[in-house]
Amino acid sequence: MSMSFDQYMRDMIQPMRDELTSLGIQELRTPEEVEEKLPTAKGTALVVVNSVCGCAAGQCRPGVAKALQHDLTPDHLYTVFAGQDKEATAKAREYFAPYPPSSPSIALMKDGELVHFIERHQVEDRSAEEIAADLTSAFDRFCR
Predict the structure, then answer these.
(1) Nearest to 48 by CA among 100, 111, 109, 136
(2) 111: CB partners within 8 A, 6+ apart
(3) Fewest CB atoms less than 10 Å from the CB: which of 44, 61, 62, 88?
(4) Model's pTM, two decimal places?
(5) Secretion signal: which residues (predicted)?
(6) Chain segment 65-115, per-residue pLDDT in tens
(7) Is 60 a known active-site residue?
(8) In the annotation, is 53 catalytic?
(9) Of 13, 53, 114, 133, which residue is the catalytic one?
């Protein structure tokens, strides 16, 4: 019995998706879903650009999980998966200007406008605790 490459990849990355969706973060898997949610989200919205890379597993996703334990959190929680849901990720990145594409990365938006952004290079050399502290500081500033 052989498995298609696409099925293999779906099976391999599902735990990476689940790590965020189990926190109540909604996946946006198509450009239409991104367009429906991001520009019209009232209040604050966290958008995690998920990735298969080691820094996503080692620091980014755990950092997001720790940050969401904070008393003050965004009104909306979304994620797109770079390299998997390519069109949705490209559409989400249109809202992250002037930042170049990077994954993993984390955006905080307020009323459809980007107010805080953590790029890949700010994930790679930091611990989950440092990323969580960065996020909770942004939550305290923008999620009131």
Answers:
(1) 109
(2) 41, 42, 43
(3) 62
(4) 0.95
(5) none
(6) 999 999 999 999 999 999 999 999 999 999 999 999 999 999 999 999 999
(7) no
(8) yes
(9) 53
